[in-house]
Amino acid sequence: MTRQSSRVPEHPSVQEIALQAVLEALVDPVRRSIVTQLHDAPADISCGNFDLPVARSTATHHFNVLREAGIIRQHYVGTSRMNTLRRDDLDGRFPGLLDACIADAHVATAGAPA
Amino acid sequence: MTRQSSRVPEHPSVQEIALQAVLEALVDPVRRSIVTQLHDAPADISCGNFDLPVARSTATHHFNVLREAGIIRQHYVGTSRMNTLRRDDLDGRFPGLLDACIADAHVATAGAPA
User: Fold this and answer.
1) Contact A85, A67 (CB under 8 A)
2) Domain boundaries along the sequence of chain A
């Protein structure tokens, strides 16, 4: 049991989510891409299954920043680290903030050449 | 006329306002303080009349970043550079984003020791 729980990374509680950390996380376009992919997916996504323009080690850093800011929740399924968007927590703390990022990403995608 | 208009700083149009630049502007707490003071004020505020914890030259830099991101509008009245929050423009482009910053600043102020 102890070994299992030691593998669960730390997350801030809803009350601990701070706007400064959230903005620092969302100012990076790769991290906003992670947020948008999680929003658009029908289920949790493992760290290895995102479409990202960075090396795996860099991606791991981005996931850590998002988790520590309170934007995503991570848990293990077997050896896969799965990611969930903390949508309700963020919307409760800062209504409209995630929506702005996701809507902007969708507009950018729609406007990009095919 | 030409001399007068040359003193008006450049501003992005509503369509040119980009989320990346807006987030880069709002990630700085001093710039969020400028936004909050403009929101709370009954009228435009000149650059010299904000309550900011930075030197005047640094404040000028922050005003420029906010103007270039499309968050504030600046115009001259005599020799004073006046600042206006582009509230409607921002709310139209990214609904909820400014509100999140302003609400957070008010909570922080309410929670601070008197």
Assistant:
1) no
2) 14-107
| Residue A46 burial (CB count, 10 A) | 15
Q: Does domain A14-107 have CATH number 3.10.310.70?
A: no
For B108, what's the count of Cα atoms within 13 Å in the CB-facing half-sphere? Answer: 14
Could you give the ipTM of this predicted complex? 0.89
DSSP A71: S
Distance CA A83, CA A86 (A): 9
Of A104, A14, A84, the C-alpha closest to B97 is: A104
Mean pLDDT of A18-30: 98
Nearest C-alpha of chain A: how many angstroms from B87? 15
CA distance B94 to chain A (A): 5
Which chain A positions have a beta carbon within 8 Å of B27's beta carbon? 20, 23-24, 27
Percent of chain B at pLDDT > 90 equals 84
Handedness of CA B42, B46, B48, B50 (dihedral sign): positive
Q: Which residues contact A59 (CB under 8 A, 6 or more apart)?
A: A30, A47, A50, A52
What is the value of pTM for the model shown?
0.90
